[in-house]
Amino acid sequence: MITLSALNDFTRVRHGFFTREGGVSEGVYASLNCGPGSKDAPAAVAENRRRAMAMMDLPAEALLTLYQAHTADVVVVREPWAAGQQPTADALVTDRPGLALGILTADCAPVLLADGKAGIVAAAHAGWKGALGGVLDNTVKAMVGLGAKTANIVAAMGPCIGHRSYEVGPEFPAPFLAEDGANVDFFAPAPRSGHALFDLPGYISRKLSRLGVHEVTRVPADTCRDETRFFSYRRACLRGEPDYGRQLSAIVLDR
Questions:
Q1: 213-224: per-residue pLDDT in tens?
Q2: CB atoms within 10 A of CB 180
Q3: What kind of fold does domain 5-162+199-253 have according to CATH?
Q4: Taking the model in full, what pTM does it have?
Q5: How many Å apart are CA 154 and CA 91, to the nearest integer?
Q6: Nearest-5° angle of CA 105, CA 35, CA 153?
Q7: Cβ proximity of 208 and 155 under 8 Å
Q8: CA of residue 135 relative to chain centroid, distance
Q9: For the chain, what are the domain ranges?
């Protein structure tokens, strides 16, 4: 489990960016696959999620994850939901202690946020579509709606695909440049003619800064290149593998 000092400084906040190590799953899911949306054995996924929560000194039932769909939708969590009843959204926000807000990723960026003074935490799934579409904007807005102050929010970005691995087609940059011409900074020429390399973590960092979240730290890892520690959707696709695991990132407000 990886943690970042920016969030560790809050006495009432615990968090973790989990790797693929330390679970019971096998094959392409080896070993800490926490994604119930995968084709992995449900019992193995449940045990992996239990192990992840144990690493945070929490019971398995504390973990809440979503049916993620690359939207900009945010859920304000007041109480836990039953297994299989998770809402469709891509971010969670709460001011209630003991609820572990979880995001599942395999190249997209997990972003954990906290206002330690107000006692408000959030977790967001930020792939290119969600980040461009406003999932981070809406997450910060929901935190402020619960009483957070933007200037006090700290964000930590977990392992995601790095720019050297993120080749995109010629049509991809257009909506980013339409949003802001300065987003050209996040595209570099790719080896293939007409293609580009996209810097997802760089784009997310600037997006958060422009939302008023100025303390943004990240785990310096490329999920696509680091097969030992991380699952990767893109790597699985390049190899023609039938499925892929998902790593968990979680944040909780202590009681």
A1: 999 999 999 999
A2: 13
A3: CNF1/YfiH-like putative cysteine hydrolases (3.60.140)
A4: 0.98
A5: 16
A6: 45
A7: yes
A8: 11
A9: 5-162+199-253
